[in-house]
């Protein structure tokens, strides 16, 4: 994920320091509408602005799960989830922050690479720049490529758009309690870990992630079968596959490219839920005599009920070129993207392929051009920052313009944000161009609602909160250590370095306000079929969601004044307006979640209702007669 500081306190629930070791990814509190932040002391509820920080930005730090990195690096911390992820390296040209700031990074670092629950591997020389969101290039607003399907009712929403990266904390129990059904897996499938000799000698059950450079040990053993079979049947998984980790190598020969493509096909066959497991040998073997790689009956049954249907090629567009490859990264990444896309589709034509989303947006136009209008189904981009940098519009416009110019048609590409978030607490990162300000729980909760709603409002299909549900990325006080929705309790057993310095952690397992805000948002908006923005006037924002014959609106006012908002097209005589943050200052003070949100009823006249929303987003529902 990202650099040190910011994400250590973004979570909605404290996790005690790291990801859930058992899952391979991570381990394991709202305010009244029409009011401002309460009177909580600044030490608990400071004010700040949420500058969008491209993930690529933050991702300048790779994250190896703590467990993984006991052997692979990261101060010997053990990763509770035991998976390697995509912490990511920011590029020289910049990261992908919420506010559009760019980050320079001499050598990319893999976000989650081999870790899954939290330890971050931060490359030397990585700069974490938290700046303002940049505007899209000239002409971006005229791009013909639309974000998501669109009809007269707005952007179409197919299925649930709410997810977490990753969602495996406490064995997916938090994810299910929150209501979300999507999890972006934190343990990436790296070809050179499954096939270290690059010759087809595959081992998905006993893959090995090599130790971090300069660290002792044989590496970390990874059982991909166990990871793939872990999610409950009602949790949809998307995961990453990449030939190399963090640009550690490149394809040396054409034979290696063929071996990689064959690996991808066999991997997809193994996990796509059909009867073809990609094996050529009888049990207990699979690919070669004596390898004992045939999946267990339990694994086959679990994947038949819950197959993997979404694959992302790498985490950053620099992952397929070695050393300083800014001049050649586009062609090399595009080649690997095409190989991956073709191999995935050969095994499972229904599967969807994403491309890396954790790089500076300026690095994508050349990649799109090199792809020549083909080779991907979904474009991903990442955004992190302070609560006021929630709007992805300019970032999306930039990508749409670049795609359109590269020959991708408007009907062919969709957009996901598989990593986004803001924090509570006070992240520390010496590489940031400015200090990330303290944010209280109410600020994080406001940012969460605005991040999801604004992204869906511009046509993003799926949005994944990151890093994890429980705090503790393991990057020594970076932003990713604080984005969780549950506190980790500064658990000494999983100390990442910053926990001892975090005076804002209220105790392991205590839920933040953002946890309850997410639950409320999910309950009210999941199941929507379309969304469109109806008002965007000097900070006054209004989004309309169609919910199977009834309308639900989300509104807020960023300007801080008391202007009146007029909602038109209301089909009932009264509406209910509910604040999306509980009416207390801290999540630990929420006693009755169902009754924690202040609400009022308003009369409708001539199909219109007038409200005065403040900075706490409101959800407005029609009240049936």
How can the largest sheet be summarized? 8 strands, parallel, barrel
For the secondary structure, the number of strands is 29
Q: SS-based structural class?
A: alpha/beta
Mean pLDDT figure: 78
Put simply, the count of helices is: 13
Percent of residues in β-strands: 15-25%
Helical percentage: 10-25%
Q: How would you describe the oligomerization state of the chains in this entry? A: single chain
Any idea what the radius of gyration is?
Answer: 23 Å
Poorly predicted regions: 1-10, 12-147
Cα separation of the termini:
48 Å
Shape: globular
Strand order in the largest sheet: 9-10-14-15-16-17-19-20
Commentary on this structure:
By secondary structure, this protein is of the alpha/beta class. The chain is 20% helix and 19% strand. It contains 13 helices and 29 strands. The strands form six sheets. The chain has an eight-stranded parallel β-barrel. An eight-stranded antiparallel beta sheet has the order 7-8-22-23-24-29-26-27, with helices on one face. Helix 7 packs across helix 9. The longest helix is centred in the middle third of the chain and has 19 residues.
Topology:
Blueprint: E1 4-7, E2 11-14, H1 42-45, E3 52-54, H2 55-58, E4 61-63, H3 68-72, E5 86-87, E6 120-122, E7 150-151, E8 154-156, E9 162-165, H4 173-178, E10 182-184, E11 189-190, H5 191-194, E12 207-209, E13 220-222, H6 224-229, E14 236-242, H7 254-271, H8 297-305, E15 310-313, H9 329-347, E16 352-355, H10 364-371, E17 378-380, E18 383-385, H11 393-405, E19 414-421, H12 441-457, E20 462-466, E21 484-487, H13 513-525, E22 530-537, E23 540-546, E24 551-557, E25 565-567, E26 574-579, E27 599-603, E28 609-611, E29 618-622
Parallel strand pairs: 2-21, 9-10, 9-20, 10-14, 11-14, 14-15, 15-16, 16-17, 17-19, 18-19, 19-20
Antiparallel strand pairs: 3-18, 4-6, 7-8, 8-22, 12-13, 22-23, 23-24, 24-29, 25-28, 26-27, 26-29
Helix pairs in contact: 7-9, 9-10, 10-11, 12-13
């Amino acid at each position: 994920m990202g650099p040190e500081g910011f994400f250590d306190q973004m979570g909605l629930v404290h996790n005690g320091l790291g990801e859930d070791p058992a899952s391979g990814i991570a381990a394991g509190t709202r305010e009244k509408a029409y009011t401002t932040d309460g009177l909580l002391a600044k030490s608990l509820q400071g004010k700040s602005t949420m500058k969008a920080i491209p993930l690529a930005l933050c991702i300048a730090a790779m994250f190896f799960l703590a467990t993984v990195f006991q052997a692979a690096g990261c101060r010997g911390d053990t990763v509770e989830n035991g998976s390697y992820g995509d912490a990511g390296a920011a590029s020289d040209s910049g990261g992908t922050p919420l506010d559009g700031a760019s980050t320079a990074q001499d050598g990319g670092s893999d976000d989650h690479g081999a870790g899954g629950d939290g330890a971050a591997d931060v490359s030397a020389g990585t700069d974490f720049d938290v700046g303002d969101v940049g505007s899209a290039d000239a002409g971006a607003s005229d791009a013909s490529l639309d974000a998501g399907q669109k009809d007269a009712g707005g952007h179409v929403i197919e299925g649930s758009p709410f997810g977490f990266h990753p969602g495996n904390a406490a064995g997916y129990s938090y994810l299910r309690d929150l209501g979300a059904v999507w999890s972006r897996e934190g343990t990436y499938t790296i070809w050179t870990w499954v096939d270290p000799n690059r010759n087809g000698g595959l081992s998905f059950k006993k893959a090995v992630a090599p130790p971090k450079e300069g660290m002792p040990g044989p590496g970390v053993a990874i059982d991909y079968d166990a990871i793939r079979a872990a999610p409950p049947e009602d949790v949809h998984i998307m995961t990453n596959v990449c030939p190399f980790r963090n640009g550690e190598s490149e394809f040396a020969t054409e034979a290696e490219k063929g071996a990689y493509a064959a690996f991808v096909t066999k991997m997809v066959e193994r996990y796509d839920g059909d009867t073809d497991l990609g094996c050529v040998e009888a049990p207990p073997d699979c690919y070669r005599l004596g390898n004992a790689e045939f999946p267990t009956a339990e694994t086959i049954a679990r994947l038949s009920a819950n197959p993997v249907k979404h694959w992302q090629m790498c985490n950053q567009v620099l992952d397929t070129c070695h050393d300083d490859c800014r001049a050649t990264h586009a062609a090399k990444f595009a080649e690997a993207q095409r190989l991956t896309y073709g191999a995935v589709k050969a095994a499972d034509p229904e599967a969807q392929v994403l491309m890396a989303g954790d790089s500076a947006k300026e690095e994508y136009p050349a990649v799109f051009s090199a792809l020549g209008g083909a080779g991907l189904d979904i474009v991903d981009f990442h955004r992190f920052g302070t609560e006021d940098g929630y709007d992805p519009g300019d970032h999306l416009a930039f990508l749409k313009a670049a795609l359109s110019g590269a020959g991708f048609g408007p009907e062919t590409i969709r957009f996901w944000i598989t990593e986004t978030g803001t924090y509570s607490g006070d992240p520390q990162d010496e590489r940031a161009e400015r200090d990330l300000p303290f944010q209280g729980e109410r600020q994080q909760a406001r940012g969460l609602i605005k991040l999801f709603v604004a992204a869906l409002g511009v046509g993003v299909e799926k949005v994944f909160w990151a890093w994890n549900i429980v705090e503790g990325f393991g990057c020594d006080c970076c932003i990713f250590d604080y984005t969780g929705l549950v506190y980790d309790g500064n658990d000494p057993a999983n100390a990442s370095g910053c926990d001892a310095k975090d005076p804002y952690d209220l105790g392991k397992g205590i839920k933040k306000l953002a946890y309850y805000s997410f639950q409320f948002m999910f309950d009210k908006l999941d199941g929507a079929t379309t969304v469109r923005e109806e008002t965007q006037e000097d900070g006054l924002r209004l989004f309309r969601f169609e919910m199977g014959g009834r309308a639900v609106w989300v509104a807020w006012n960023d300007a801080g004044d008391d202007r009146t908002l007029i909602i038109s097209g209301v089909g009932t005589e009264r509406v209910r307006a509910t604040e999306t943050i509980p009416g207390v200052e801290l999540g630990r003070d929420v006693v009755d979640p169902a009754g924690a949100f202040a609400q009022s009823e308003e009369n409708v006249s001539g199909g219109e209702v007038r409200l005065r929303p403040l900075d706490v987003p409101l959800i407005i529902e029609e009240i049936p007669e």
